[in-house]
């Protein structure tokens, strides 16, 4: 049916291209058993990767907190969003931390 529609619209016959199947180097040298072993090994290592990532995130959070805490002391004046963080009676831009 596609050929008829194409013929009616464009007044030309459809030529179906010949499929050329060339395989890549990766497909030629694929080894199913080795692939399954590698997948199992990666699944075993996922938990260790999660743990190291969590540790890195904790260390980063501590570094950020240490940096922030070194810049500000209790009682310093800091600029705040008055509507979001303070009650209505303390709505000033500069307030003690």
- pLDDT below 50 for ≥5 consecutive residues: which ranges? none
Number of DSSP strand runs: 2
Strand content: 5-15%
Helical content class? 55-70%
The string of secondary-structure elements, in order, is: HHHEHE
Main beta sheet strand tally, sense and closure: 2 strands, antiparallel
What descriptive keywords fit this protein?
elongated, 97 residues, 59% helix, mainly alpha
Summarize the model shown.
With 97 residues, the protein is mostly helical.
Description:
The chain has helices at 2-10, 25-28, 32-71, 82-85, and strands at 77-79, 94-96. With 97 residues, it is mainly alpha-helical. The chain has a domain at 31-68. The chain has a two-stranded antiparallel sheet with strand order 1-2. The longest helix is centred in the middle third of the chain and has 40 residues, at 32-71. The relative contact order is 0.06.
Layout of helices and strands, plus pairs?
Blueprint: H1 2-10, H2 25-28, H3 32-71, E1 77-79, H4 82-85, E2 94-96
Antiparallel strand pairs: 1-2
């Amino acid at each position: 049916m596609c050929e008829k529609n194409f013929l009616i619209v464009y007044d030309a016959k459809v030529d179906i291209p010949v499929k050329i199947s060339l395989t890549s180097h990766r497909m030629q040298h694929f080894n199913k058993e080795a692939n399954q072993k590698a997948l199992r090994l990666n699944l075993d290592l996922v938990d260790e990767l999660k743990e190291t990532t969590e540790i890195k995130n904790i260390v980063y959070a501590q570094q950020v907190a240490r940096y922030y805490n070194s810049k500000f002391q209790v009682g310093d004046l800091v600029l705040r969003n008055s509507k979001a963080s303070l009650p209505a009676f303390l709505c000033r831009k500069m307030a003690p931390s």
